[in-house]
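Exam revision sheet. Question 4 asks you to relate a sequence to its structure. Input first:
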Amino acid sequence: MKKLLFYIAILNVLDAGFTFFGLHYSIIEEANPLMNKLFAASPLLFLMIKIGLSVILLVIGNALNNRKCSVSLVWVSVFAAFGYTITCFLHGFWIATII
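Answer key, structure tokens:
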């Protein structure tokens, strides 16, 4: 579980970077309305919150320290990892085709 949360944290930081770049240069649009409003209010705050959420995931991963987790927590984490993987590939693809 620790490795899975670490993977999600890394993907979240990559997503933050891709999203920041894409929004800043008007290459992409943010699909998440909350993140879109946050970016419109302050791109720096957007990055700080995304990175802060990744730090929280790392702290939780260290606190779990190979403890047995509930099946639902594992499935939610797998779903999040799958979603972030697809999102990062999409952002990377869109940016690569523009550059």
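Marking note for examiners. Residues 2-98 form one domain.
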